[in-house]
């Protein structure tokens, strides 16, 4: 399996953190034998770092998720930790340019990941953002299943 890093990039306040938490929850819902190192129901407040292990008939897959993607928040350290603990798939947040993007590119090269750069659904209407975040999470889990043959 090709190792993947799904990078949700965007400016501040567009739903990246919420979408990443929803992705973790959706993975647990979608895979019967998924086990996480943290409780995701209800969704925790603030940023998360979690590893979910999916046990499939032919193999196990480790998925790391880190939601803190602002500059100067040690994203590279968290990505290094997830990559060096044998995560096959990583989901993370970054800004649109700068050090957080460079952090992902460095992990991609160092550990042999292939990055897929995506963004959340957004429309600028706060009352609709929750539904858009949920839809983004579901779509990204489908993308993960497709690109990683799960």
Automatic annotation (TrEMBL):
ATP-binding among keywords: yes
The record's GO molecular-function terms, alphabetically, read:
ATP binding
The protein in question is named: ATP-binding protein
InterPro entries, from UniProt?
Answer: P-loop_NTPase
Keyword field: ATP-binding, Nucleotide-binding
Which species is listed as the source?
Answer: Terrimonas ginsenosidimutans
Write down the superkingdom of origin. Answer: Bacteria
């Amino acid at each position: 399996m090709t190792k993947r890093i799904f990078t949700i990039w965007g400016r501040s306040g567009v739903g990246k953190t919420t979408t990443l938490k929803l992705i973790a929850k959706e993975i647990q819902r979608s895979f019967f034998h998924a086990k996480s190192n943290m409780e995701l129901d209800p969704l925790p407040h603030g940023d998360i770092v979690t590893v979910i292990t999916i046990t499939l008939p032919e193999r196990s897959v480790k998925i790391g998720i880190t939601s803190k993607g602002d500059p100067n928040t040690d994203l590279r350290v968290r990505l290094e930790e997830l990559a060096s603990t044998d995560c096959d798939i990583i989901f993370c947040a970054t800004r649109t340019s700068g050090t957080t993007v460079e952090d992902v590119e460095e992990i991609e090269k160092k550990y042999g990941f292939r990055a897929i750069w995506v963004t959340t659904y957004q429309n600028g209407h706060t009352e609709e953002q929750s539904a858009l975040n949920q839809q983004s999470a579901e779509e990204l889990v489908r993308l993960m299943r497709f690109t990683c043959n799960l």
